[in-house]
Specification:
552 residues; alpha/beta; Glucose Oxidase, domain 1; TIM Barrel; 3 domains; 16 strands; 47% helix; globular; binds phosphoenolpyruvate; binds magnesium ion
Length: 552
């Protein structure tokens, strides 16, 4: 096995621990006759059912509470004499243990389902027991999230949302998935909860249970046979991160005192408190899609106003940048987007869709102006997916007409980055959305795992575009922020500041890491690091060049 496996790191975490693999459900056994004598087959099955029952009971004991009741109920079902008799009959008829369990449990499951009610709901639990017994008979790991009884590195093909929701974060030190890109469910969950994760690690299937590995999200790597020196380095980094997370929540600043306001990306008003607790100095991107996505028509002005007030109230006296509805492509809305478009990422989306449905834009701006009047926050509004100077001008006029004092645009399309020196004079500020800017610069769908390698904001092509925007900000004196995932990568955050960006906005879980890294470099150093990255030919070289200069 290679000493290091690579994928896409999510966040900056690093962990060291033993692997526990999440097995896929075992394939259903075929109806075949056993090569063994019935007594031998029967003994195998009994041993497997006993082992699975003991394992479930011990997991229940460790978990306690409601989980224990559920697991004990599963054990009782597995021991049901009528069920065991049904298995035994099939074994005596010459079937394999695997098939006997599969068929007998399935029959029982059906009976429970026809009874309905409480018993009907237990049918799924019975299926889980059957899968565990079959896996045991085959010598495969039990399906589902494993529980080895100690902290571990979870290795999975990918995680279903139901699995991820139940992850015990005290036990799961890190996640490694074979599938998935930077915007997969696993990645989103890991980023939101601050779990160390590397996704899309194609060779992770080679890892075995109990093997000690280092998961280094910052380096997008899994180290399979770490040396003592590497383990010591990881221990130091883990302690340093813990200290940074526990450190007083000072405002973001470089080593020479240059202020770099650290803002939060939020997707709902409910997320505001956590951001404040983690030291967010305001909001750099409030995604308003949540208000629209669950409904088949746009929400009323009153409904929107209520949500915006809730958000703004969490940030009295602070800057809060709200983005106008960004519908289309990865966030389609049936009442706004045309489902028939062949290339929705290049279609009527973002501001284009709003200008084609002015009513929705006007309602949103009205609700925002009313919310601002009712609260103490410093509200800024911005348009998504702006690609021309005219669009920037039009949106800014709309916002001003509605009484909003600060309106700006997102720079997510190469055309607007290249024209930043023409766009900034006609609007109030720019916020660079590096997720889409990378997608459009590299022509690589941000949702597609197969091209995830190209979706890298370290790419010098992306950095050159950001440089254009930073320089235009300098010339015009207009603020330039970054609110894409790039701002959450601590070293890249330093590069962005070196390219002329003034503020950074990110998932709140990333604030501590970015705050720490910024405090290590002066403005001059940030510029030198940025120049080194810009001069590279590839994303990997840009990252390495930045690391080399930063370490000097
Ligand atoms: C971006 O594209 O970088 C961005 C911040 O917007 P979203 O991720 O919501 O498209
Ligand atoms: Mg975007």
């Amino acid at each position: 096995m290679p000493e290091s496996l690579t994928g896409t790191g999510i966040g900056q975490g690093v962990a060291y621990g033993p692997v526990a693999r999440m097995a896929p459900p075992p394939a259903p056994p075929a109806d075949t006759d056993s090569q063994l004598k019935p007594e031998q087959e029967s003994a195998r099955v009994k041993e497997a059912i006993q082992a699975v029952s003991a394992e479930l009971a011990s997991r229940g004991e460790t978990a306690g509470g409601q989980a224990q009741e559920v697991l004990e109920a599963q054990v009782m079902m597995a021991q049901d004499p009528t069920l065991l008799e049904a298995v035994e009959q099939r074994v005596q008829a010459g079937k394999t243990g695997e098939f006997a369990v599969h068929a007998a449990f399935a029959e029982f499951q059906e009976t429970l389902q026809t009874l309905g009610g409480y018993l009907g709901e237990r049918a799924a639990d019975l299926a889980d027991v059957a899968l565990r017994v079959i896996a045991h008979l085959r010598g495969e790991p039990a399906p589902g999230v494993p529980d080895p009884g100690h902290p571990f590195v979870l290795v999975a093909q990918d995680l279903a949302p139901a699995d991820t929701a139940l992850l015990d974060l005290d036990k799961v030190q890190a996640l490694v998935t074979i599938e998935g890109g930077p915007t997969s469910h696993t990645a989103i969950l890991a980023r939101g909860k601050g779990i160390t994760a590397v996704v899309g690690v194609k060779d992770a299937a080679q890892l075995s249970d109990g093997q000690q590995v280092i998961v280094d999200a910052a380096a997008s790597a899994i180290i399979t046979e770490p040396s003592q020196e590497q383990i010591d380095d990881v221990t130091r980094r883990i302690e340093e991160r813990a200290a940074a997370a526990a450190a007083p929540l000072t405002p973001g600043a470089l080593a020479d005192g240059t202020e770099v306001p650290l803002l939060a990306n939020l997707g709902s008003p409910e997320a505001a408190q956590e951001a404040v607790d983690l030291g967010a100095e305001g909001v750099g991107l409030f995604r308003t899609e949540f208000l629209f996505l669950s409904s088949d028509k746009a929400p009323s002005v009153a409904e929107q106003r209520e949500s915006y007030i809730k958000l703004l109230q969490a940030f009295p006296g602070k800057k809060v940048v709200v983005r106008a509805l960004d519908a289309g492509a990865d966030k389609p809305l049936p009442f706004l987007n045309d489902a028939e478009e062949e290339n929705p990422a290049l279609g009527l989306r973002g501001l284009r869709a709003l200008l084609a449905n002015e009513e929705i834009l006007r309602d949103q701006l009205t609700a925002l102006a009313e919310a601002e009047a009712a609260t103490e926050a410093d509200l800024w509004v911005m348009a998504p997916m702006v690609s021309t100077v005219e669009e920037a001008e039009t949106f800014t006029k709309f916002a001003t007409q509605h009484g909003l004092k600060t309106a700006g645009v997102m720079i997510e399309v190469p055309s607007s980055a290249l024209l930043a020196d023409k766009i900034l004079p006609v609007t109030g500020f720019a916020s660079i959305g590096t997720n889409d800017l990378t997608q459009y610069t590299m022509a690589a769908d941000r949702l597609l795992g197969s091209v995830a390698g190209l979706q890298d904001p370290w790419h010098p092509a992306v950095l050159r575009l950001i440089r254009e925007v930073g320089a235009a900000g300098d010339h015009t004196g207009k603020p330039v922020g970054v609110c894409g995932e790039a701002a959450a990568d601590p070293l890249l955050a330093v590069v962005l500041i070196g390219l002329g960006v003034n503020t950074l906005s990110m998932a709140p879980a990333a604030l501590a890491d970015v705050r720490l890294e910024l405090s290590r470099h002066t403005k001059d150093q940030a510029e030198a690091i940025a120049q080194a990255a810009l001069a590279a030919s590839t994303a990997a070289d840009a990252r390495q060049a930045a690391l080399d200069v930063a370490a000097r």
